[in-house]
Amino acid sequence: MEKKSFWNRAFHLYYDGFRQMTLGRTLWLVIGIKLFIMFAILKVFFFPDFIKHHSEPGGEAEFVATELQKRQLQP
Amino acid sequence: MIHFLAIDSAAVDWARAQFALTAAYHWLFVPLTMGLAVIMAIAETCYYRTGKVFWKTTSQFWQRLFGINFAMGVATGIILEFEFGTNWSNYSWFVGDIFGAPLAIEGIVAFFMESTFVAVMYFGWEKVSRGFHLTSTWLTGLGATISAWWILVANSWMQYPVGCAFNPDTMRNEMTSFWEVAFSPFAVDKFLHTVISTWIIGAVFVVAVSAWYLLKKREAEREMAIKSIKIAAVVGLLASVGAAVTGDESAYKVAQVQPMKLAAMEALYNGGHDVSLTAVAAVNPFSQPDYKQEEEAPWRIAIPYGLSILGTRTLHGFVPGVNDILKGYTCEDGTVEPSAAEKMERGKMAIIALNNYRRLCADEETFADQDSDGLIAAEKEKQLAVLTENFKYFGYGYIRDESELVPYIPVNFWAFRIMVGLGTLFIFYFAYLMFLWWRKKDISSMKWLLIAAIVMLPCAYVCSESGWLVAEFGRQPWTIQDMLPVTASISDIGSSAVATTFWLFLFLFTAMLVVEISIMLKQIKRGISE
């Protein structure tokens, strides 16, 4: 009998494993919903990159310097 | 005259609360993943050595519960990174690549190790050899532990920033020594204490689930429950003692680099030599004590010399209290720790020097052709020297009143006692289970013990979360110790925006937790039957 290659066996490990999942299907569904909520809703609508949105490209250091300056002293 | 920009203090509170909520939720999953990994791997090792199907079934059962917890915990930590970028943007920029490097390594290691070996563990029972499968199971646990290492390295750097230099041109801290960051003594202690404590949670979880089967007189799971309790008792006892030893070493390190945290943990208002360790005292849990007026916390019961031994490893060593740290003191080795007022003054000098330096940099570009004598460059060097000399206290320049430097004592004091108290209880608990095993007692007939085993499960989580409360509340007001306080770290955002996402998270996290617990309970009820 011909021995299957490493990559073939590796592919079938995942392929057969995913096909035969029972509880795993539910868990993957939960993971999918969770990742969708995190990346498609929370990240997009509620968690923008604050510095990127408030500074010019390449001007991030200046923006932070100004922010830190504002936080403290103005003689 | 110094004027401070009024940052919305409610925004700071909401952002802190949101971060605490997210981290605490994330930490519900992580310790069980790492703890259960050890026990399921030991069960599979028994299968490898004996070849008995019973051990295969046992390890598969614990691996199933591991999988549920693993799936529910996946990516919950990513939300913390969202919060860094939105709520704590100044901090995110300021930490530079020091935070980025360990987190990137963590992400890569987690992805490759876990996606490979978790797959072999679940899909490979009939496809790979027993030895390779066992190796994959152990490596699944090792992968999670290595991930934890890099996260804890990043956290430790915030508590004890080493191996870095501040670049005033980029406004970022730059790594000068990867090894100093990765293997700082603080990180090593934190890693050992944290990882070992997760094994306690794994052990308590396994005993609790097993106890439930015995309480319900489930014959199919009886043997698995009894033998799993034996494994968990050994792991739990070793881990409980290990957590006590590494916790002691962690406290020693805290005494060296975060004395204010130790003073808050102990409600030590006035330090000295021969300081006793507070066992318990009537510290009001709901208000900051008047540490300036009170000599010590009321109704204090203490262990003589305990704190001197803990903090200095000598009977008579000097341990500073809150007031000593604010007023300044002389360390055992003769070095003088400046007062809070002096640190605040030097911090302001550093900030002014930084601002001047950056202004001069801009001037240098604008007036390059008019500064033939190099006066601007010379002045820049002067300001840079002032900044470098005082940078150690940079963060103090943002402190308006020295009372801001004192963490909220009640939370630190009680969380520390809850952690230590429950940790001690676990030592006796697991030792008692081992004793019963040694005396060949039938644990299934001891109903009170089985109920106690289930009650221990929430106690283990309270213990673990209390540890994080001590670590994180105790370093207030700093996001990076002495370098950056929360008031400077936070983005210029409104409190209502952060409050909205706080409540959104609370709802989402609660919903996800309900889903997880219901799936977990369903699988536990199902037991080992197919």
Basic shape of chain B: globular
**Main sheet specs of chain B:** 2 strands, antiparallel
Using CB atoms under 8 Å apart, which protein chain pair has the greatest interface?
Answer: A-B, 40 and 57 residues
- Work out the count of structural domains of chain A: 1
The number of distinct helices of chain A, counting runs of at least 4 residues, comes to 4
Shape of chain A: elongated
Oligomeric state of shown chains: heterodimer
Gyration radius of chain A (Cα, Å) is 25 Å
Approximate strand percentage of chain A: under 5%
How is this structure best described in words?
- The complex is a heterodimer of chains A (75) and B (530).
- The radius of gyration of chain A is 25 Å and the shape is elongated.
- Chain A is built from four helices and no strands.
- By secondary structure, chain A is an all-alpha fold.
- Chain A is 73% helix and 0% strand.
- Chain B has three domains: 9-257 and 410-526; 263-337, no CATH class; 340-398.
- Chain B is built from 18 helices and eight strands.
- Chain B has helices spanning 9-50, 53-73, 78-86, 89-95, 97-123, 130-159, 178-182, 185-215, 219-257, 259-266, 306-312, 322-327, 340-366, 375-390, 409-438, 447-473, 486-489, 495-526, and strands at residues 164-167, 172-175, 277-280, 301-303, 329-330, 336-337, 478-480, 484-485.
- Chain B has a two-stranded antiparallel sheet. In chain B, strands 3-4 form a two-stranded antiparallel sheet.
- In chain B, strand 5 (329-330) and strand 6 (336-337) form a beta hairpin.
- In chain B, helix 1 packs antiparallel against helix 6 (130-159), helix 1 crosses helix 8 and helix 2 (53-73) runs antiparallel to helix 18 (495-526).
